[in-house]
Amino acid sequence: MEEVLEEARLEMEASVEHLAMEYAGLRTGRASVHLLDNIRVSYYGSEVPLNQLASISTPDPTLLMIAPFDPTSIADIEKAIHRSGLGLSPTSDGRVVRLPVPPLTEERRVELAKLVSKMAEDAKTVVRNHRRAANEKIREAEKDKEISEDDEHRFLKEAQNLTDEFIEKIDELAEKKKQEILQI
After folding, report:
1. What integer pLDDT is reported at residue 103 of this predicted model?
2. How many C-beta neighbours within 10 Å does residue 127 have?
3. What is the per-residue pLDDT across 4-40, written as a single tens digit (0 to 9) for each?
4. CA triplet 129, 131, 133: central angle to 5 degrees?
5. pLDDT value at 98 more than 80
6. What are the φ/ψ torsions at residue 119 (nearest 5 degrees)?
7. Boundary (domain end) residue, out of 76, 100, 124
8. Dihedral angle, C-alpha 88, 89, 93, 97, nearest 10 °
9. Using CA atoms, how far apart are residues 3 and 78, in angstroms rounded to an integer?
10. DSSP 35
11. CATH number for the domain that contains residue 127
12. Domain containing 95: what range?
């Protein structure tokens, strides 16, 4: 049963890490190289992550600078940024792409805060589903007389404690991201 709990822990950790990656891609009004993590560029017929085609830097808090390794890919990079839905307008001088990150409006900040909450709830659902799967395996083991009833209760309690721990981590991540978004 320890393996079942360890597997649940690993799956829950992966859920929290995935949420953290999704949060990194949310625009906060401050330039961050992670803003472009999910952008894929059509490059010679295949979809390639932007960070593999160019070096990305933040020379100041309101600007991202993208320096492609192959200058012929600038047009493709600009198209990918337009398609991304980030609402940012890239400009280029033939060598680098500049991506100004304007400050967020109050309305957009509130929208993003709601999105953060929804993403957190989705992640909590995934964590609870992992707990449910572990609980089913534990109950099955007790039913098949592989473990005692007392062990079943102990393992179910451990699964619940694991779930509580990861839900608390999700709440902390969400609160931190909301503060970052709502900060002017």
Report:
1. 78
2. 25
3. 999 999 999 999 999 998 888 776 767 778 888 888 9
4. 70
5. yes
6. -65, -40
7. 100
8. 20
9. 47
10. G
11. 1.10.132.20
12. 33-100
pTM assigned to the model:
0.70
Dihedral, CA of residue 19, residue 25, residue 26 and residue 31, to nearest 10: 140
Is 101 buried (19+), middle (13-18) or exposed (0-12) by CB count in 10 A? buried
Tokens 């949420």, located at residue = 19
Structure tokens at 4: 């079942």
Q: Tell me, yes or no, whether 178 and 116 share the same domain.
A: yes
**89 touches 102 (CB < 8 A):** no
| pLDDT for position 184 | 62
CB 106 within 8 A of CB 114: no
- How many Å is the Cα radius of gyration of the chain? 22
- Strands across the sheet with 91-92, in order? 54-60, 63-68, 97-100, 91-92
Distance CA 130, CA 1 (A): 14
Cα–Cα distances (Å) from 128 to 11, 20, 49, in that order, read 11, 18, 31
Residue entry with tokens 């039913």: 143
Work out how many domains the chain is built from and give that number: 2
Residue 89 burial (CB count, 10 A): 12
Paired residues of 65 in beta bridges: 57, 98
| CB neighbourhood size of 56 (10 A) | 22
Q: Based on the fold, state whether residues 113 and 96 are members of the same structural domain.
A: no
- Please report the beta strands in the chain, taking only residues with DSSP state E, as ranges in sequence order: 40-43, 46-49, 54-60, 63-68, 91-92, 97-100
